[in-house]
Amino acid sequence: MRSLFVVGLLVMPTSVTAEGPAEGERSLSTAAPSGPPGLLYVIKVTPALVYLDGGGSAVNMGERFLILRDSDRGEGLYDKVGEARVIRLFEEFSIAEILSVSAGVEIEVLQRAISAAYWEAMVSTAAMPVSSPPPWKPGAALGQWSIQLLGGVGLQKGIDLQDTIVTPAREITDASAGVRLGRTVASKFRLNLTLRISGDPLQAGTADVTQLSAELDGHYLFNHPGSVRPWVGIGAGLHRLTWDAPAGAEDSADKAGLNAMGGLDVPLGRNGWSLMLEGGYQGVVQWNDIIDASSIRVHVGIGKHL
User: Fold this and answer.
1) Contact 28, 15 (CB under 8 A)
2) How big is the chain by its Cα radius of gyration, in Å?
3) Do residues 165 and 246 touch, judged by C-beta distance below 8 A?
4) d(CA 259, CA 186)
5) Would 295 disulfide with which of 29, 154, 205, 218, CB 3.0-4.6 Å?
6) Rounded Cα gap, residues 103 and 101, in angstroms
7) Is the Cβ–Cβ distance between 49 and 95 less than 8 Å?
């Protein structure tokens, strides 16, 4: 996301008075600072409206505002969150309807609002081009797609077969690799489809079982997009287990499984790349009390927002 840079803005205190929020709304009822004409604070948010701490003396009916949030890329930098247009004026505050919200973010209390006309005048003076993410209409649920390449290990997997398939397999540490396709939902949730392979084909240990997995997980992400984001998740999967069996014996089985995990997404610069760290537990239904592919998993990955 490109950043908007506001220079030389002198911040001055002002008093804000607004009606109490209805249920489900977020608001700021204490005094909030304001700036010169065009730079205000968001003091209250509803699904369709934003309240700004500027009244009739600083805001015009029908005036369009850009909603900004502080950027993680440096002091004085702002990322565009959305746009709003003033529809009601009061002495000390104004109400604006939300026109658009950028993909993957939300309008929140204490974000800044700058008059579009004021900003365009600044840009014109500085001869600076401005671009922003494509608009995302309020109420739209689906956000960005992402893809990740994963690699890691599974601990305490019972997939090292003994001389026969009668004795329970020995627990080992097993390597795995995979690819994950994800999509954010309402900026805080991410749905993921992950395909993994582990065991014998990777030749990373003494595993005698090949495990092919298709997993569907849901993640809840903390913090806002563009920052370091811890997350937790749960999910389920289907696992194809195959092994070399004596003639006439069963050599494959399909087993269900459940996943519980947590991790950390770390952005790498401004081009959409990120580093992913993940740990958790995967439970897989045993095969004949001999093969137990359940494991404690630790993975790292590299990802790209599409």
Assistant:
1) no
2) 26
3) yes
4) 23
5) 154
6) 6
7) yes
Distance CA 126, CA 60 (A): 25
CATH number for the domain harbouring residue 148: 2.40.160.20
Residue 55 sits in a domain of what CATH number? 2.40.10.170
Q: Residues 117, 218: one domain? A: no
Contacts of residue 234, defined as CB under 8 A and 6 or more positions apart, other chains included, come to 217, 218, 258, 259, 260, 261
**Is the model more confident about 212 or about 140?**
212
* Structure token digits, residue 306: 């599409």
Shared domain for 14 and 132, answered yes or no, is yes
Chain centroid to CA 272: how far?
Answer: 12
Question: Residues with Cβ < 8 Å from 59, sequence gap 6 or more?
Answer: 40, 52, 86, 89, 94, 115
Measured CA to CA, the distance from residue 84 to residue 68 in angstroms comes to 11
Residue 93 and residue 47 share a domain:
yes
Q: pLDDT tens digit string along 273-293?
A: 899 999 999 999 988 888 888
Euclidean distance between CA atoms 20 and 257, whole angstroms: 48
Q: Which residue has the higher pLDDT, 159 or 209?
A: 209
**134 C-beta neighbours (distance < 10 Å), count:** 7
Q: Domain total for the chain?
A: 2
Domain boundary among 96, 121, 136: 136
The upper half-sphere exposure of residue 291, i.e. CA atoms within 13 Å in the direction of its Cβ, equals 27
173: containing domain: 142-305
- CA dist., res. 172 & res. 260, Å (int): 20
Taking only the tens place, the pLDDT of each residue in 89-132 is 988 899 999 999 887 788 988 888 988 888 777 766 654 444 45
Q: What are phi and psi of 119, to 5 degrees?
A: -65, -45
